[in-house]
Amino acid sequence: MSITRQDVEHVARLARLALSEEETTEMTAQLNRILAHVESLNELDTAGIEPLTHPFETRNRFRDDAPQPSLSQDDALANAPASAEKHFLVPHMFGGE
After folding, report:
1. Cα–Cα dist 26/12, whole Å
2. For residue 36, which of 61, 1, 71, 84 has the smallest C-alpha distance?
3. Which band of pLDDT confidence, cut at 50, 70 and 90, is reported for residue 1?
4. What is the pLDDT confidence band of residue 96, given thresholds at 50, 70 and 90?
5. Which residues span the domain enclosing 20?
6. Residue 23 lies in a domain
7. Residue from 22, 20, 25 nearest 3 by CA
8. How many domains, in total, are found in the chain?
9. Which of 3, 39, 45, 62 is 20 to 30 Å apart from 88, CA to CA?
């Protein structure tokens, strides 16, 4: 399989990219080198190798979801840029007062 100049021009048009003649030529060559490398991977003997979703063992790194005491209102508002009457103050978004 190889990428033609027309393939690159077609994809560039779909992506709304304006490629110069030089860029089109360079992109065609680069994509063909990438495909050649990927094709060379087919020569590897993968018999007996199970497919993986990740190369390393993964496990959940989150803590247990156990009930804990929550912050008090005063602690939650301690670092707020602005607060009033135990509420966060935020800027108005759509006019108003």
Report:
1. 13
2. 1
3. confident
4. low
5. 5-43
6. yes
7. 25
8. 1
9. 62
